[in-house]
Amino acid sequence: MAYQCVIALNEIQDYLQGATLVAFDFETAPLLQYRSDSKASLDPHRACIVGISLSVAEGNAIYVPLRHFDGGNADPEIVIPYLREALWTNPNVTKVAHNLAFEAQFLYALGIVLQPPCYDTIAAAQLTLKSSCEFRGLGDSGLKTLVPKLLGVELPTFEEVTGGRFFDELSASAPETIRYACADSDYALQLYHRFNAWFDDYLPQHRILAEQIESPTAIFCGLMKYNGLLMDRPRMICKQVECMDRLVELREQIRSLIGDVDIGANAGTKAFKDYLFKDLGLPILKTTEKNAEAADDQVMVMLAQWCAAHRPELVPLFELVQEYRKWSKLKNTYVDGYLKHINDATGRIHPDLLPLATETGRFAARNPNMQNCFDDSTEILTNRGFVRFPLLGEDDCVAQWENGEIYFVKPQARIKNTYSGDMIHLLNQHVDLLVTPDHRCLLQNRKNRQYFVVPAESYCPDAKQLHAGQYAFGVKHMDTHEITLLAATQADGNYHDGGIDFSFMKARKYRRLLNAIQSLQIPHSDYVKADGHVNIRIRKGDVAERIIQILGPEKTWGSWLLEYDRKTIKGILAELPEWDGCFTRGNFFSSSVKSNADWMQILYVLTGTRAHMREYHNGNPNARINYQLDIVERNHSLTTNIQKANEPYNGMVYCVTVPSGFIVVRRNGQVCITGNCPRKTNDPVGI
User: Fold this and answer.
1) What is the band of 684 on the pLDDT scale with cuts at 50, 70, 90?
2) pTM summary value
């Protein structure tokens, strides 16, 4: 690579002489008063340009340092005015950058508005396909992602080069500094040629979009972000105090009616629900997925109406609770939520503007306008099983779906926000989702099998909803007879003195287990009891010890299943109906232990099979609840009879961000593949 550091104006002029296509990139660092904030380097109100790289040909670039502490600098008072006329406002030069909005912000801070023609390679990337049917998204379009994939070159990360320092603390003349800075403009130029060649071959109109629409738009996004939205912080703080005072007042009024019952921040605590439904004996009008008493806004309205007819003395309590929740929402979401995004240097909010972020073509904004998705009863599939969003741990990996495959990945972000308003409830015998109206729903066309994404409020009644995918699983293996022994022990075995005891009335089960034991040559004994039961005992030894170690003291299925290979997992699923299901048709599994049903449902989901969980009770008050899986050998259901309803919601909403944009969730036993948030830019093209 012909990379060099130059500081003399005549050398810069010689390099750019006659060039009509120039890629450029800025290196930035915080101003001294903002160095305690590691993200200040990205903010033109709190940072400055410390160096500029320029490239006019593949494998060739120069770095012009401006504000390094060591290694020599060019004079910015000379270089910036020259580049303003020769490059940034020159109508005869095409300006190329990766993430043009970022460079546009820093130029605007200098009083320079970048002029066309221009080309943003991060926008162009999102107009190209990364597979036969899927466009790249913002998460797929970073320079450190594109260059290795498209150009076969691994680039060092910023952290690897700086070692925790700011860029102006590096020596301007150090080879690694020059190489890192020059590579950004060099490879942006190479991507320009790569993408345009692709456009010319496959989608010529997308080149027009990139050059004439999306790249100029990126400049204006930078200007809009730089200007931001002016916020009246003193007035917001006054409103914050007003909210706090009003909440204290309302809390005292509620306390005068109910005593020292803890109502928490949103009048939804267990103590408050116990007071309503146990102490006051009010009717339970709605339950959560866990069959607990619900106490959302809808329930408060319903209880107020019931009390108006049956317990009029309690109506003031529900009026106070609804007022309390309204003020809590105002404070937590709109006052506290916006205050934390105000830039100390400007007194403004500077949201990220995403012009390619929606299916409809409208702009999206984030920080603070993040999209939110699921109610607090929805579970997400993790490497430790299905977990309710509020209980998702920092170490959890979540299941993402991509082109039919399921992987476990660390979430790139976790979203948790207060939400007050209508949610969309999508419901049929296979789907149960309670999501925000613009939640991204992944569907498949019934005829051409093309995937497409729609907002929840526009959910289609004539498509396929996905419920399962394919997971790679691990490398451990069991043979057929070992699987039989494992399934039999889990279903019907009892640990005793280091061995495993079985007792059967069904000859079918006895013969099946005995065949496995004899094939494995396991020491055992069997005898017939007077009541007709046939007993088998696997004696204490290596086999019994191994089975006990795998299943654990409680004899349960668990996350250890993911360590076994696909053949073993398919064998387990084939064996299960012989012990806890319908062995003739193999279309259901049942267990009185919910975690066992959970993990069998997970295995079906990860092997491309739809499995719906429901509770079953035989009517005997002394019998335990069984959790039954209804199994269908397909990965989807039809949305023909979907019911779509608006439901009032006041509470926390949750989501995660994953690279693919699609996750595996469950609500009330129904598993669905659906979108995550924030809204991604690589949603498949619609029908």
Assistant:
1) very low
2) 0.54
